[in-house]
Amino acid sequence: MKVYGYIRVSSADQNEARQMAAIKELGINGCNIFIDKQSGKDFERPQYKRLMKRIKPGDLIYIQSIDRLGRNYNEIQTQWRVLTKEKGADICVLDMPLLDTRTGKDLMGTFIADLVLQILSFVAQNERENTHKRQAEGIAAAKARGKHLGRPRIELSDDFSRVLKRWKDKEITAREAALICSVSVSTFYRRIRE
Predict the structure, then answer these.
(1) Which residues contact 170 (CB under 8 A, 6 or more apart)?
(2) How many CB atoms neighbour CB 99 within 10 A?
(3) Which residue, among 34, 28, 32, has the nearest Cα to 6 in the 3D structure?
(4) Residue 110 CB: number of other CB atoms within 10 A?
(5) DSSP assignment of 21-89
(6) Is the pLDDT reported for residue 41 higher than 70?
(7) Confidence of residue 40 (pLDDT cuts 50, 70, 90)
(8) Residue 69: which of 139, 2, 133, 124 has the closest Cα?
(9) 3-class SS at 104?
(10) φ and ψ at residue 74, rounded to 5 degrees
């Protein structure tokens, strides 16, 4: 039996230290810890795929919480089944002791684990949908208040029209015009279109 740890954070700028500390506390060998830094919306994750190739029947996988495995209800259910039934591995979710397939392998234990898994998978997906909804509502409210979203608009110098005329008369290149205006070439062209 080999013991593995799987860690996922949603983006490259997020820190996996909390999950790593919990996994390392279990004494798992560093080469058996797999880390993905991308969204949990699907299972197209390189390290997760590497882990899946290495898993053999009887192996054990630790994850910090069920939402590290994924956020989509159906995908979490499918992956749980693949790992436990098809691969024959055990899973232990550290922050939910009821989700430990090593214990309660009788009918009642399996029923309770399946029930908890379904509830937590639903909660994870529901939270994701609510987050997107709140985000969309926040954006709509900000726009309604006239708030500009995104990067701040770059103001052009007062002599933009003079620089534009020089560019149109082919006295200077677009790159030179952008340099004079202290903007990128793409911003220079965008302002021309505007």
Answers:
(1) none
(2) 20
(3) 34
(4) 13
(5) HHHHTTT--GGGEEEEES-SSSS--HHHHHHHHH--TT-EEEES-HHHH-S-HHHHHHHHHIIIIIS--
(6) no
(7) low
(8) 124
(9) coil
(10) -65, -40
Q: Catalytic positions, please? A: 10
Compute the residue count for the chain: 194
Q: Which helix (H) or strand (E) holds 188?
A: helix 185-193
Contact in structure between 41 and 18 (CB atoms under 8 Å)? no
Average pLDDT over residues 178-192: 86
The whole model's pTM is what? Answer: 0.63
Q: How far is residue 62's CA from residue 73's CA, in Å, rounded to a whole number?
A: 19
Residue type, 90: D
Residue linked to tokens 């052009």 = 156
* Those residues with Cβ within 8 angstroms of residue 92's Cβ, 6 or more apart along the chain or in another chain: 60, 61, 62, 63, 99, 100, 101, 102
Report the distance separating Cα 141 and Cα 72, nearest Å.
27
Tell me the CA distances in angstroms from 162 to 62, 112, 148, 149, 158, one per residue in order. Answer: 65, 74, 28, 30, 9
Q: CA-CA distance, 108 to 99, in Å (whole number)? A: 13
